[in-house]
Amino acid sequence: MTTSTPTTATIPVIYPDSQEYPATEPISVVAERPPWRHTFIALSVPNFRIWTSGNLVAMTATWMQKIAQDWLVLELTGSATKVGITVALQFAPMLMFGLFGGVIVDRFSKRTLMMITQSCFALLSLGLAVLTLTGDVTAYMVWGIAFLTGLVTVIDNPARQVIVTELVGQKNLRNAISINSSVFQLGGMIGPAIAGALLLAVGAGWAFLVNGLACALVVFMLTRLRTSQMTRQAPSPREPGQLRAGLRYAWAKPTIIWPVFLIAVFAVFGLTMPVILASYADTVFKVGAGGYGLFNSMIAVGALTGALLSTRRANIRLRTVVIGVGLTGVLQAFASFMPSVAPFATVLIAVGMSSLLMQTASNSLVQMSSNIAVRGRVMSLYVLVLLGGQAVGGPLMGWLVSTFGVHFGMLVSGGMPALAAAFAGVMLARRGHLTVHLRMRHHVPLPTIEHRLV
């Protein structure tokens, strides 16, 4: 018996006229859904298996630290606004220096850079663990370590994005991105639950200790990668104007700049959930640290489902991102009307699934639309708006929650991304990149949106 493989086509990508960068490879579009046996095909690459195993432990521990850090600040200060300040300080360095991180990532070995950044993360987490376990910690100390962690993230995050291409190559890149998202969300499902238990039993310090040890494990796993099997890109030479060239490249491509715009709005409003969920757990449903961990786990359950579904996606287009941002915003706004814990947690699962499908599509489209020689700078722009937006949104949402109430904050967190998606859809339609068609099915007109890739 013979087996069939999915047929593929390619969509040509128009790229900016430039002597610096050759044409981007055509974006692969799968005409049929991949067979189930290819759901995790990127794991057939030994280096990616090593990376993924270490990453799963690291992501679980990172989520533990994130939940414990936010709750610790809430315990120390009793203020949702100051939880927002914590989020802002952790992401502010990306807002200030993120683009320069991309230049560094394009210039040096991604593996070496990550070994350095993960070692720094380990030292910072272990230091916070010591301060917390000895009872000497203050909110100002947490803020200082959060800011230093953010500085390291300026280099770590774009390096983390780009190294995946070196591990699996262009062919399995989309599948690898989906698996990475699955690992991140699996960690987000397990980590908050463990953090909630630790917070109730022994306090936040142990969560910080576990994260420090996990970062050290990542450094060890990076030493185990077989460099001879990596698809290495020659580092970009040091020359003036690299940052401007990367920005010009991104600006000229709708498949890069529109996802960046939508992710920026979503990051400011939609990704500041820790501030909102902490207030829901503390003041609305009064379920404490355990409930806060539960709410984050519900989002992660939905996100893990979305990540697994994203490995089955036949193709990714600009409309996928536009519709995904709009749908996620509507679901998040809908959560503000939930009257009790059970329906609220149920809607959070839907929010997590929709959000992850949208973010995976956006990440994949931006990476596949950018030439490998400039991908570090393009992804640093993407990460800049993704994390830097949260630096702006953290205190903003904290102020909205403190001033107008948590229900209003949740409504705004979803409503603004939905409006941004509507704006993007209208602008793209006016420029001819999106068109709406009515198709009859069972005598019922069903609207569909099509777009032209440029």
Automatic annotation (TrEMBL):
<feature type="transmembrane region" description="Helical">
    <location>
        <begin position="316"/>
        <end position="335"/>
    </location>
</feature>
<keyword id="KW-0812">Transmembrane</keyword>
<feature type="transmembrane region" description="Helical">
    <location>
        <begin position="112"/>
        <end position="131"/>
    </location>
</feature>
<dbReference type="InterPro" id="IPR020846">
    <property type="entry name" value="MFS_dom"/>
</dbReference>
<keyword id="KW-0472">Membrane</keyword>
<feature type="transmembrane region" description="Helical">
    <location>
        <begin position="176"/>
        <end position="200"/>
    </location>
</feature>
<dbReference type="InterPro" id="IPR010290">
    <property type="entry name" value="TM_effector"/>
</dbReference>
<feature type="transmembrane region" description="Helical">
    <location>
        <begin position="83"/>
        <end position="105"/>
    </location>
</feature>
<feature type="transmembrane region" description="Helical">
    <location>
        <begin position="137"/>
        <end position="155"/>
    </location>
</feature>
<dbReference type="Pfam" id="PF05977">
    <property type="entry name" value="MFS_3"/>
</dbReference>
<keyword id="KW-0813">Transport</keyword>
<feature type="transmembrane region" description="Helical">
    <location>
        <begin position="289"/>
        <end position="309"/>
    </location>
</feature>
<feature type="transmembrane region" description="Helical">
    <location>
        <begin position="206"/>
        <end position="223"/>
    </location>
</feature>
<feature type="transmembrane region" description="Helical">
    <location>
        <begin position="379"/>
        <end position="401"/>
    </location>
</feature>
<feature type="transmembrane region" description="Helical">
    <location>
        <begin position="256"/>
        <end position="277"/>
    </location>
</feature>
<keyword id="KW-1133">Transmembrane helix</keyword>
<feature type="domain" description="Major facilitator superfamily (MFS) profile">
    <location>
        <begin position="39"/>
        <end position="432"/>
    </location>
</feature>
<dbReference type="GO" id="GO:0005886">
    <property type="term" value="C:plasma membrane"/>
</dbReference>
<feature type="transmembrane region" description="Helical">
    <location>
        <begin position="341"/>
        <end position="358"/>
    </location>
</feature>
<dbReference type="InterPro" id="IPR036259">
    <property type="entry name" value="MFS_trans_sf"/>
</dbReference>
<feature type="transmembrane region" description="Helical">
    <location>
        <begin position="407"/>
        <end position="429"/>
    </location>
</feature>
<dbReference type="GO" id="GO:0022857">
    <property type="term" value="F:transmembrane transporter activity"/>
</dbReference>
<keyword id="KW-1003">Cell membrane</keyword>
<protein>
    <submittedName>
        <fullName>Putative MFS family arabinose efflux permease</fullName>
    </submittedName>
</protein>
